[in-house]
Here is the input.
Amino acid sequence: MSQAQQSDNKNLTYYRQRFSELNPSKNKKKESGNAPYKPILLLSVIDLITQGLIQDNRIPVSDDLIDTFDRYWQVLASDSSYKGGLHYPFLYLQSEGFWHVQFKPEFQGLQPKTTNKLKEAVEYAYLDNQLFDLLQDEISRQELIDTLIAVWFSVNEKELTDLLQANQNFRNFTQSELSNPNNEPRFVLKKSVIRKAFFRKAIVQIYDYKCAFCRLKAIRAITQNIVDGAHIKPYSEYYDNSVSNGISFCKNHHWGFDHGWFCIDDNYKIIVASDLQEESPHARPMREFHGETILLPSSEEYFPRPEALRWHREIWLRRA
Ligand SMILES: [Zn+2]
Here is the structure.
């Protein structure tokens, strides 16, 4: 295969594959285990790109990056027995082929053993240009984030507990940020695309990847499914990522819910707007769901909160 063809093949599918096959640790010492250094470094970089704190494909060992990596480590891997630092993945991510480190000339070939040494020795890191370009696009970026989270932060039977714990840890961090507005760091977790991805993943998993309205379930590959983890009270206003503020909807019914085409009463029954006009020759029309109970999670503690459903009804039924 020629160089040009190889470069053409480096598309979203290629990088999703690379992200799902990261070699978790080059360190053979037992205590390092499968500590998710590389995924956390990638999530940190992606988050800084999204927030506009990394604008060019030159990623220095900045305080933003050190701080973001530390926060994610605390939220996602604080129970890991091994604590290295940013220097560790920053160097070893090079083995994946899409992350390149530019050392300062006098430090060429050194292997810095601390983050401070790393800062001294490194000019910047850069991603494959194709990957950096993909990360500028919101949809590709979301797929890459979802791939990292699906593969690296959810394991078998522990999966849901871990996800909920991660979501809770993000929540606690956000609360402390919100209660301390004068001391707001440049990087704010409440705006993080990563924490939203953890919320979505926890919600769709609680509903077994089904739409709570129509029960549709369609999955292709580990990261693509037809349902969204929707917020009942909008996140942008309430910063509420608790599970009881979430509900799983397919794309159609997510949009319909957000626009008040239907509401849900205190007994979890569907109320369809009376002025809805629809033709649906091949699927059950929405109005036929009027009065039916939505799909509920198997455990009552995850049910949508009546207060949130009431908030949504008040917004939309008042306008009708
Ligand atoms: Zn649906």
